[in-house]
Design a protein that fits this description.
Blueprint (H helix, E strand, L loop, with lengths): L1 E3 L6 E6 L8 E5 L12 E5 L7 E7 L1 H7 L8 H9 L3 E3 L12 E6 L18 E2 L2 E2 L22
Antiparallel strand pairs: 1-2, 2-6, 3-5, 4-5, 4-7, 8-9
Length: 155
């Protein structure tokens, strides 16, 4: 089943569970039109598909989902993320079997994704803060025995 994005620039195939129809997705947002999405849009960062890398948005149709998945449906973020993760409604270009590294990350609702979020791609990525890479200390512990020290202080 093909679905066009909000700006009509991209058309992608969706893989749906047998009891789902194309109407479970209300609006699909490509990386070019995601900025126009509402706060309840599920944001997915596609990492390893060179033709579709970027932040995608899915706004599910709650009425249709409630009708087509009445036993499982709850109006909560975890349900909508689960629909994608359990491949009941997922982009067809993503592999069915993920063995080692996931080709995507679910970032949450668009309203929860931090402002200025940098698109993180590829297996070797840098965490960004204010547009600059975060530099972690080279030595985080003094040695292997440090983890065995007794804790001190008030808890």
């Amino acid at each position: 089943m093909d679905k066009k994005c909000f700006c009509n620039k991209k058309k992608i195939k969706l893989r749906l569970a047998k009891d789902f129809t194309e109407n479970v997705i209300d609006i699909l947002y490509c990386p070019d039109c995601l900025d126009q999405a509402g706060p309840e849009t599920l944001v997915v960062n596609v990492l390893r598909d060179k033709n579709n890398i970027g932040l995608w948005g899915i706004r599910f149709n709650k009425i249709v989902l409630k009708d087509q998945d009445p036993e499982e449906y709850i109006d909560k973020y975890l349900y909508f993320a689960g629909v994608f993760i359990m491949q009941k409604c997922i982009f067809d270009f993503l592999p069915k079997d993920v063995k080692i590294r996931s080709p995507y990350r679910i970032l949450g609702y668009k309203g929860d994704v931090p402002e200025g979020y940098e698109n993180i791609t590829g297996p070797d990525f840098l965490l960004m803060a204010n547009g600059k890479p975060i530099k972690f200390p080279k030595k985080t512990r003094s040695g292997p025995l440090e983890s065995y020290k007794k804790a001190s202080g008030d808890f």
